[in-house]
Structures
1.
Amino acid sequence: MSIQQRALQEFQRQPAATADTAAAVQLLGQLGLPQPRDEHWRNANLRAFEQVTHFLPPGASAALPALPAPLPGFQRAVFIDGRRAPQLSDAGALALLSNPAWPAPADNDGHRDDQRFALLNALFGNDAAQLDLAQDVAMEVLFIASGAAGSVYPRLAVTLAPGVRARLVERHLGATTADGFICAQTRIELQRGAHLDHYRLQDCNVATLWMDTLLAQVGEQAHYDVRLLGIGAATARCSAEVRLSGAKAALSWRSMAALDGRQVNDTLLRVTHAAPGTRTSQLFRGIAEGRARIGFDADVRVTAQAPGTRISQSLRGLIEGAESGINLRPRLTIHTDDIQASHGATTGQLDENLLFYLLSRGLDVATARALLKWAFLGDVLSAVDIPELRQQAETAAAGHLADRVLAGVLA
Amino acid sequence: MNASGAESLLEIDNLHVSVGGQQVLRGLNLAVNAGEVHAIMGPNGSGKSTLAHVLAGRPGYEITQGSVRYQGSDLLALPAEARARAGLFLGFQYPVEIPGVNNAYLLKTALNAQRRQRGLPDIDAFDFLALVRERMKLMQIEESFLARGVNEGFSGGEKKRNEILQMLILEPRLALLDETDSGLDIDALKVVARGVNSLRSPERAVVLVTHYQRLLDHVVPDFVHVLARGRVVRSGDRSLALELEKRGYDWVQEQAVA
């Protein structure tokens, strides 16, 4: 029995289907689930996904892991195993949340093949964290997997009304059992002139499988600023689709992965420039220690309706393990003449000249190497301008770097 | 102590070094005592920078013959970081930029590495700041540079002054300055020279690797050596540098061949 059949069989054991889930079942039947040989999924380690046998969410949560300290100035909403946890959430945050129906993603650009895990989320998910924001706010949404048997389906949807500026911290923590996985979906809609600073930290247990789908629609003069810190999980995959649909819409994407052991982290970032004067800047830094594998596939498309587009891509990988691997793919498809684009992708090892400079100042090899690794990640970490979150990210990343832990070194 | 009563810091004996299979140093001899300033001059490709980097322990050089003793011990047996902690400092001709690594952090980490080597505790944060501020003032470096990445976005002159600042914080026993004067305007040259001169003491020595004699107007050396084809072919006092300035290097190289 294929994994798709297993998933659908489990779905039949649920209470009656809704119109949304029926549509998702139909789509799943048409599209199937991704296969390891599929072009956009080669680096995603789908073999690990094939081990999943338990698709239904946990009936009851296991004992909770310790929650991170609240972020000063942020309202907190907590979801345990995909269910809202009012007792752990701020009243102010709960007042902003709604829990609407959750249909399968619409097929905006014909990229549904990359969003097939969102169909599983539509089939099996419980509560959604929907935020329709009409005023400026700082929110934190914590998705915790308690370790109870089953799979977890975090759902987050954010809509910013025109001109609203929001800061959103989205953290994925905890673990599932070995037969389950975390299948997250996030939807973003930014209306005219809105600005979202979106901080995403994935620091799940290193035995966990984390599959994530992010869909964003950025309107006229709106700005979407994403920092994605991928640190935990045995296998993590982010399939992101950002559509710059309004004139002068902008995306700033900064993400990093710091892995060791046999961890896998793969990102597919598709950006569509569909309006004039739109801008994208992408920055990725990945360090692979041990036998870890990192993939980053940046696919930017500029339509004929998007003259005056500006794009910059900077993708860099640092191979630290003899058996580690990094695969970076910057791609631009352009259908207009009026465009400025710069892109670069490099994968290599620590610069021996920099290392010698530090050694010549008396630093030991481990400290010098650690310093250079922090410097490498600095372009992304320094964009995390919430000190408590940055500290958590640095501490988590340090746990995956072979050299000595250092704090406070970044300029 | 050597025969003259001065403490011998560096003794290079018949040093042969090759890089990528090509012989660069061919039997170099040099002795540097505490309290002395030596200038090593020579044309391009004579081996000056190779000598400085070999002494500092840069990988990629093959020592095919000879020995180097530093404070009586085999210098070549030590890795680069141990040489630095033992008080040897290399001022780079082309200091690297390390974006992301905080300048102050590097200075403090380097200083503490040396202090631990000497059995001293880590420097107190306030004492460190006071020390750095004083030395930055001497080198005319703005305090805001402390929070910036190492040499990140610095001009050529600022990088060289930052090298000397590091030297003044670390207070090495033997400073090797590799063409520290290159690319400096006259004002920056004077600032760098002031920093080097402030380090002169009976316990320390400085080896200036330079192409031109103009630095030596401001840091007056006790000895001048001319390097050609990987060997010291002539040694003298400051007047030798002035003669080189007038006559160029050709005559020394011709003598070396002869």
Note: Helices of chain A lie at 3-12, 19-31, 46-49, 91-96, 116-124, 352-359, 365-381, 387-398.
2.
Amino acid sequence: MPAIEVQDLQKRYGALRAVDGLSFSVEPGEIFGLLGPNGAGKTSTVEMLVGLRRRDGGTIRVLGSDPDRPSAALRGRIGIQLQQVALFPRLTVIEMARLFASFYPRRLDPAETVARVGLQDKGHTQTKDLSGGQRQRLAIALTMVGDADLVFLDEPTTGLDPQARRSLWDLVLDLKRRGKTILLTTHYMEEAERLCDRVAIVDHGRLIAMGTPRELVDTHFAETAIEFESESLARDDGLRGLAGVSRVHTNGGGAVTLYATNVALAIDELMRYSSRREAPVENLVVRRATLEDVFLQLAGRRMRE
Amino acid sequence: MSFWLLFVADLKSMLRNRMALFWFLVFPVIFILIFGAVFSGSQQPVFAIGFAFASGDPLGSGLSDGLRKLDAFDVHTGTLATELAALRKGERTLVIEIPEGAARRAFGGAKTGIPVYYDKGHEQTSRLLFSVVDEMLMEAERRVSGRPRLLEAQFQPFQTSPLRTIDFILPGILAMALMQLGFFGSFQMVALREQKVLKALGATPLPRLHVLGAEVLVRLLLSLVQLALTIGIGVAVFGLHVTGSWLAVLGVVVLGALTFTSLGYLLTCRARTIDSGQGLVQLVQFPMMFLSGIFFPVGIMPGFLKRVAALLPLTYLGDALRQVMVGMPPEHPLGLCLAILGGWLVVSFALATALWRWE
């Protein structure tokens, strides 16, 4: 039985269809990512899954129950990470862990849990004095301390610096190793690629693609991406005619992405073209296509534009 | 188990919050000390009475000497011209003229007028004294005629100690502190609502009512600390005598704390942010503080303000506390005070429950 099963989920706010016919299922033990830009309907979906918001249509099964008819038993088996840390800003890390453990029927040792997220040295620090990254780690610890089977992480790394983000990823992978099922939302492609076994890409409340990150890239891209910066070439339509280049994307600045079926040929062509135009090319990078490219192709824009 | 831990968490949060401790505990104490110091001087207003009579006049000297024995009167004697000049300058409240030969005429049995001059601008105060003057003249007349007094009022004080201004102020400040605790304590819930914590708790096995319940319990505990502090300061610094039973005092404090806690939650139950909650609370709290007879008796206010004061719960909490703590004579019967407070509690609780928003 899937841990989560969603069929044709609908949520409207007035005329806005925030979630518009979303269907997916999450298998026990996997990390499933809802990937999409802000306003795609990710948070609304999570809130409906944990029973904080009523759906307007469709069916949901979470650990076999309907979250609109929540039971204490169901709430005891799911962990959510929203902004719970704000509950008692003047309690210490270990006091918060003890308090949250007391809410749940099954619980882990609070001190061990705090140590597992790397906050053992901060055990007696009041939560208001923690850094953003430490706060997020505490939030994860609070979802873990109740020994939930299914953990919801809504944008767990938003606002963190790259180092704090990486250390949080390790925590999420650790949860998975302990057999937990995890649903996370993110608008960071790299995060989804690193963590998720499967990803659902959503935009405007609709599913636009689903699969493993590898599958998604392979299905939608036979090409390789060539990125560079050039003020003048970014405004040059001639790039589209280069041999080996299948598509071109430019943004308002000087950044250009060429999608190439034949990388060697495309770079050769690009170099000739740039010297012919006397337009120097800077910061040239060749990379494999990513989920970001998939989103760009399917949604027609970048995730954070 | 989790409720107990929540209670402890709330209590620790409160004890670690220096600002809250200052406002809820230190601030009332400072208030009491300031008011106590301000009113520690002479307790009663002194009225300056001028007597104008020819020196050696038996009636004039008899009356003025008699009045001089009373602390409340500052007695002056002089000619009519000097005394009237003093009245004009505001240095006298009343000037009593004993005309030349008045005593002789009165002893002879003739009706004799004694002119009493007063400032029409201070008619209220002056009228208070008219009966004193009347009484004084009647007493003199009785002595002259030798007629015995048939009906005599016997004033029997039942106060163990005289009531002073601090006795009036101190229970009022405790009432004010209970109001502040109830009103400003409700912002914790607004903060949790603003940060969407209350909403998120809906997805945990913890009943959200436990969060609210633990908070109310901490507030009750703190109101008892306020009680102990005010009484402690009152006894230690101002020699306060608590005349009522401790149980009655405790009961009124708990009723007051619950009423204002409930009112605080009512005022902030729809507030999405601390800022918007604060506006409404201050709109209610500020006038209530000054119109409820906390710092001065409601009796001296004009009629329309009296009618406003008669609606405010703080009026009755202050009145009830004054009665049970120091035995102050009631403005309203104790039963009425408790009934009105209870009414505010029930109505605000029902409204707050009906309008309450967790998110």
Note: The first strand of chain B starts at residue 47 and ends at 52.
3.
Amino acid sequence: MSTWIVVVAVGLATILFKAAGPVFLGKRPLPVRVRGVVDLLAPVMLTALVVTQAVGGDGELSFDARLPGVAAGAVAVWRRAPIVVAMAIAAVVTAAVRIV
Amino acid sequence: MSTEGPHATRLRDGVRAAVPLAPGPVLFGLSFGVLADAAGMSAVAATAMSATTFAGSAQFAAVSVLDAGGTILAAVLAAVFLNARYVALSITVAGIFPGGRLRRLVESQAIVDESWALSGRSGRFEWPILVGAGLFLYLLWVGSTALGTVAGGALDDPDALGLDAAFAVLFLALAAPYLRGRRALQAAVLAGAITLALTPVAPSGVPIVAAASACLLGLRR
């Protein structure tokens, strides 16, 4: 049930963000400093998510079967493989390590 | 829609432009449904999220935080921080939306990374391409999310399949294009360090939200 709070809050915020230019602000660009901060939000949040998803645990860092999978997937990303291929490589390596 | 005729055909051009991208939203929609199910989100809630948020990375972020046991607030903040970039994106196309405020509010929801990029291919942003492509991708995204929740319900333990590692790589691949810039790379390294440092001592979800502070590096000129 509480997940609905996430659905509604994120949905409302995103609808307003997407409408910001066309409905509320017009073509006026954001102030330079605001723009500088906004531009960094995506890489910053995505990197934090990589870390928690790869080594995050229950109140601790956990270096487990995810790590070889993520490393293999990272090489694939670096070699410019399609995202889905890189994800599949990571999943297969991690699943294999878990079986062993 | 009041603009039949030329616009009707041009919207079709937007759909056509987006067809080669179709595997993306389908596969990610399916995986979002699976991950949402694993995170304890109902099928209806997951599908409603795709229908209202329609921004893959933020949706993955929210359910990733929930799946890791983070709080509702942390999940909301992670997703909202990620989507704030749409303010900058939507300003670049502010002038191309015709009609009244309500119509612009509705049609601006077609803005996603892919439709935005396609609509600017000719050198100037084109409304029919953005809305046509966005609508096509939207239908695929919402439909495949619904299907994914069904598949997710059938999976006993998605992590046994290595899905947790796959989602780490998804976030990495989404971050990669940003990291060519020096400042973005510095901010990303700082964010990663904050997350690593706080994970052992802070409740789940808090490290990600705290890492957002790394974006303040953007205040420097």
Note: The two ends of chain A are 38 Å apart (CA to CA).
